[in-house]
């Protein structure tokens, strides 16, 4: 083995310089795109709330979005899964049209009252814009993987205002049980700078007031462990229900634009029956979950509305609805487990997401960024337990099993866990 002409630290400087520049450029593009998206989402939400009759046009809006994707977006309809697939097996640069299509599709979904999130849109825009730099910098396959991961991190960080969680999410979401440390520096830079870009443009993220965290003791830890099991099972059920609804619609409705039209009819009728509490992002309800007891069925209402919306083909994301489901479920569990409402709402907020996305580290860090360091030990326990109990499936079909979550009994050891 040849000795280095320069110390390793000196030889590292060109790498640092190169990826600082590229990740900073990704952050500028992604942070700016997320800012435009968030402002558009606010305007769409405000307009829907002042004109509630628009919900009756949701079926038509779904048909239009479905038709546009059928004609222009068939190659990018896989969304987040396409990005993850390209990281696992790089083939071709993600078409630029993914970014405007998912942005417009998500804003329309929120304007007319579908129950979808926003992370999917930001991540897809971040990954797509980042991938356009592949040819500009003549990057090899291995470097392109890093580029896409940095775009995912930047999109996640800028839409939620959680830079450290965003960075880890880009490393953790690809495979269950493994992290890609070769991309840790670009992902960190992209996530941190993208968050700053959003704030420079005037983005203000929702503040969730965390108070009344219980003192660490035997009962509080045992109660959080039980809650983590419930959160993990809920995340697993959400992922399976969403996939099952999507498969059912594809199996029984051959013409793609008709799927969101049918889903739109179902959601609009449900709104007519139960009201608008479970559509859109639902941030006001999440804020309430940290302040006072809520109806114990709120989490199921959001669960059903989101499965109907995403399963029928409306565009958006799963993560914010998972936050809603988790926060309201935690609120419902608080009196049963004799723990404060804000504490259980916060733990549910991140732990249901941890179970559904198989990202316990990113979820734990998100809890600390959103709610403060005092929640850290409880969040770590809840997120890890939720991750373990959610099985080997998740909301992202392209996510691979890098390592089993636990050792299976000898009889079942040879069974391949679902991806």
Secondary structure topology:
Blueprint: H1 8-11, H2 13-50, H3 58-72, H4 80-88, H5 98-112, H6 119-131, H7 133-136, H8 141-160, H9 163-172, E1 175-176, H10 184-200, H11 218-252, H12 258-274, H13 283-289, H14 298-311, H15 319-337, H16 341-357, H17 360-371, H18 376-389, E2 400-401
Parallel strand pairs: 1-2
Membrane topology: Multi-pass membrane protein
Main location: membrane
InterPro entries: Cl-channel_core, ClC, ClC-type_chloride_channel
Question: How would you describe the overall organization of this protein?
Answer:
- The chain is mostly helical and about 425 residues long.
- It has helices spanning about 10, 15-50, 60-70, 80-90, 100-110, 120-130, 135, 140-160, 165-170, 185-200, 220-250, 260-275, 285-290, 300-310, 320-335, 340-355, 360-370, 375-390; strands at about 175, 400.
- The chain is globular, with a radius of gyration of 21 Å.
- About 55% of the residues are buried.
- A two-stranded parallel ribbon has the order 1-2.
């Amino acid at each position: 083995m040849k000795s280095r002409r320069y110390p390793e630290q000196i030889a590292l400087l060109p790498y640092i310089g190169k990826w600082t520049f590229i990740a900073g450029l990704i952050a500028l593009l992604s942070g700016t795109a997320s800012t435009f998206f968030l402002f558009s989402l606010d305007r769409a939400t405000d307009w829907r709330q002042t004109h509630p009759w628009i919900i009756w046009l949701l079926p038509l809006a779904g048909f239009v979005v479905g038709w546009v994707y059928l004609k222009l977006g068939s190659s990018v309809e896989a969304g987040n899964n396409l990005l993850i697939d390209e990281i696992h097996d790089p083939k071709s640069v993600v078409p630029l049209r993914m970014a405007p299509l998912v942005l417009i599709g998500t804003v329309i979904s929120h304007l007319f009252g579908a129950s979808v999130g926003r992370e999917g849109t930001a991540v897809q825009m971040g990954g797509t814009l980042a991938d356009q730099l592949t040819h500009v910098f003549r990057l090899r396959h291995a470097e392109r993987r890093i580029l896409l991961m940095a775009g995912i991190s930047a999109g996640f960080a800028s839409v939620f205002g959680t830079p450290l969680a965003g960075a880890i999410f880009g490393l953790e979401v690809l495979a269950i049980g493994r992290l890609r440390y070769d991309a840790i520096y670009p992902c960190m830079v992209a996530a941190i700078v993208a968050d700053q870009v959003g704030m420079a443009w005037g983005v203000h993220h929702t503040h969730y007031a965390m108070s009344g965290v219980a003192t660490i003791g035997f009962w509080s830890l045992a109660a959080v462990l039980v809650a983590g099991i419930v959160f993990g099972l809920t995340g697993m059920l959400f992922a399976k229900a969403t996939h099952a609804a999507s498969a059912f619609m594809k199996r029984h409705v051959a013409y793609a634009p008709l799927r969101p039209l049918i889903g739109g009819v179902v959601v609009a009728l449900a709104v007519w029956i139960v009201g608008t509490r479970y559509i859109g992002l639902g941030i006001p309800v999440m804020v309430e979950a940290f302040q006072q007891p809520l109806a114990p069925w709120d989490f199921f209402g959001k669960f059903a509305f989101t499965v109907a919306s995403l399963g029928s083909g409306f565009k958006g994301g799963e993560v914010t609805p998972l936050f809603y489901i988790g926060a309201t479920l935690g609120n419902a569990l608080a009196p049963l487990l004799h723990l404060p409402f804000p504490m259980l709402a916060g733990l549910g907020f991140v732990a249901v997401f941890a179970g559904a996305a198989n990202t316990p580290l990113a979820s734990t860090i998100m809890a600390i960024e959103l709610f403060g360091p005092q929640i850290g030990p409880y969040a770590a326990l809840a997120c890890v337990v939720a991750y373990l109990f959610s099985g080997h499936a998740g909301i992202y079909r392209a996510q691979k099993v890098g390592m089993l979550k636990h050792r299976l009994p000898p009889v079942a050891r040879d069974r391949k866990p679902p991806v």
